[in-house]
């Protein structure tokens, strides 16, 4: 992989929840403007790993880590966490719109970053909703409660909300696991569209989804002590057709997990 | 069908009937409990309201003269009225040259609009006690709400965050929480005693609105803290994460997402506290004094409706007036609850969108 295009990187990264080690020595380089999928059996630390990139693990009492995590070559732990999270957006497993109107949800991030101008906010809302392929469905009633939308629409609203603060990276934590197949398809199409402008990292327990949407795939698995470690990382077609590691092959052929 | 299978089927069926029967009995008991609870509550409220209604609804025809030129209004009650007096109400806006407006036979609810006169017969109405109650509620809430809500936010949003990081802070928080829970169960007269010792005597505020407001704030602080804490805890973690993940600071998250989501619960706590202050007697008996005059400053003594009710019932022969006061209290609390509920629901809808 061309080193100039590395957006996110971890080096020998260990994560602990109190005494429990959740991740063991993960080293990975995530390429820019590509979709990277993180797959692996339940409980192997996929989500925990994803949440290191925007330091969401900081919120968990007792969580601490060793090793390095870089965004554009800068260590994330020495950055201001608020600014880091603006640059590294996140979409969660369950759609989590705020109990506010659609409009207020989308412009929330811009508001907290200090945009006050109404015209500017409206423009941001329209641009973000269009980018998240939700504009046509909601443009007539932006004052409607976000909670009145369907699950798939809510998830696209959450993507729009993340896009509104102009991040560089979007982390997606099983974004389709609470959605039906049609809504899932829409989100996957959207990811393909967003890939041009953003670096996307997606955690998924659905191997077909990883194979369908991602360019690169990281396979994580638990060790004996239940800490997750990186087994294999490579381009998605290669990893799925010619896995280098026996455990990867066992997993993708459905022998366990 | 074999004999054996038939037997099993039969025994299952008889068991089914028994289970249905038990369910019916259980639901019957629950229904009865519900009905009794409602009936008792309604009876108490209805008894007080009906007993007091005569007193409250006594209408007397007043002779009212409005004098815009002088900026005053003169209310003259008929001489045969028990509350006969001439009252002058003045205001600062004067309209020189304006005509006198004379109104004959204006119906007035004299019980609500005249002042209590004190004495053994308990003559007069309750106008000053209504105003004093309002003053005290406003004062108490404006002291206890910022403190209580602030403390609850700290306990839930910041101290919880620190868990496992700072042992001393965790211990301190545990002590605070235990203290809050204990205080919520302490008899209110203890708060009165404390208020008397600290505010009335040691700090020399005397029997006054200020002493009573501070003591009342101590009384409702645990209620405000606990209800706010519960309301904050009920806000899903996902709202907080969603906000933080967008680069909001923790304070922005609390102010813009968590507090609005918790507002209905917080308002419930405030309403409970208002009810507590309106109905509290013991604390104010030893901190507010008992003057039936209208307080003119924070350091004036006064008498709330509940306190007035106590005085009427214990020290005078005007039992009907006590009932009347009770009726006004009950209806007042019902109205306050209804209005605040309505407002908080309206707010929830307007914040959430349609």
What would your notes on this structure say?
The complex is a heterodimer of chains A (257) and B (354). Chain A has 257 residues and is an alpha/beta fold. Chain A has a domain at 3-98 and 171-252: Rossmann fold (3-Layer(aba) Sandwich), CATH 3.40.50. Chain A has ten helices and ten strands. A six-stranded mixed β-sheet of chain A has the order 6-7-8-3-9-10. In chain A, strands 2-1-4-5 form a four-stranded antiparallel β-sheet, with no helix packed on it. Chain A is globular, with a radius of gyration of 18 Å. Chain B is globular and about 80 Å long. A four-stranded antiparallel β-sheet of chain B has the order 3-2-1-4. In chain B, strands 5-6 form a two-stranded antiparallel ribbon. The mean pLDDT of chain B is 86. Chain B has three domains: 1-50; 59-108, no CATH class; 123-352, Orthogonal Bundle (MetI-like fold), CATH 1.10.3720.10. In chain B, strand 5 (116-118) and strand 6 (123-124) form a beta hairpin. Chain B has helices at residues 3-56, 110-113, 127-159, 167-184, 188-202, 209-233, 237-245, 250-279, 282-285, 305-315, 319-352; strands spanning 59-67, 72-76, 86-90, 101-109, 116-118, 123-124. With 354 residues, chain B is an alpha+beta fold. Chain A binds chain B through residues 18, 54, 56, 59, 61-62, 82-86, 89-90, 92, 94, 96-102, 104, 108-109, 111-113, 143-148, 158, 161-162, 165, and chain B through 160-165, 236, 238-249, 252, 256-257, 260-261, 351-354.
